[in-house]
Amino acid sequence: MEEWPESMEETLNEVGFPPGTIDCTLSQYVDLVCGLFDVPIAGDTLNDRIQALHLLFSLYSAVKTSQLYAERQKERSDSNA
């Protein structure tokens, strides 16, 4: 796992996350979100997508509970105050 470039973070903050109301199938939405976060999908089956989502959510959980993330959030809130 490696940190995103600052430009990626800025773009996501400006553009936002793809809304759930986008006109596509659930499989296409999973492909889009996993592609956005560079999470590979092993194949084209439902099980492959479920495994990719599990990896995505596991990574999200690891990042949210990491000490580095907490320190960065604190730095941002201190700089905004």
From TrEMBL:
Record protein name field: Intraflagellar transport protein 46 homolog
Single GO cellular component term: motile cilium
Transmembrane segments: none
PANTHER family in UniProt: INTRAFLAGELLAR TRANSPORT PROTEIN 46 HOMOLOG
Primary site of residence: cytoplasm
Gene that encodes it: HaOG211982
Similarity-based family: Belongs to the IFT46 family.
Organism of origin: Helicoverpa armigera
GO biological process: cilium assembly; intraciliary transport
Location of this chain's protein in the cell: Cytoplasm, Cytoskeleton, Cilium basal body
Keywords: Cell projection, Cilium, Cytoplasm, Cytoskeleton
InterPro entries, per the entry: Intraflagellar_transp_cmplxB
